[in-house]
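Lecture notes, unit on protein representations.

Consider one protein chain, 151 amino acids long.
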Amino acid sequence: MSKLSTERLNVDADLLADSQDEDTDAHLSWAEVREQLDELSRLQSNWDSYGAHPIAAHTIQKAERLLVVICDALRSSFGERALPTDVVPVADGTVHLCWESESGELTLKVVGDGPLGYFQVDRSDGTRRTSGDSDIAESVALHLVTAALAA
């Protein structure tokens, strides 16, 4: 992670600490996000013993930038809940940013050289509905996270 981005995450961590919500236990802290992104940067080829690709630096940077945009936009409304519940490496070299709650799950797929994608499970009305797309704009990703947190 670059020095500038590390400094940005430190500043955001301080701001988020002031607006914590009682429902933050399942959500990562900025320190945990940084740790998970750092761990992803150290994964080598075949990290899952099934031929997985390493996670490229530009994919990790794109995930980090997206999280900064999301938290900048949602911090005042959702505090630390704006952070994902998990950051997951995927064998194809992508990164999944996940938000989970009782009402559903949202996964944003970060592709280094490609568009963002998402998969969503909505259980807000007692049924299970799914949706997804492999080519969404950053603004759509922000809207999806906002809706998932508000549900």
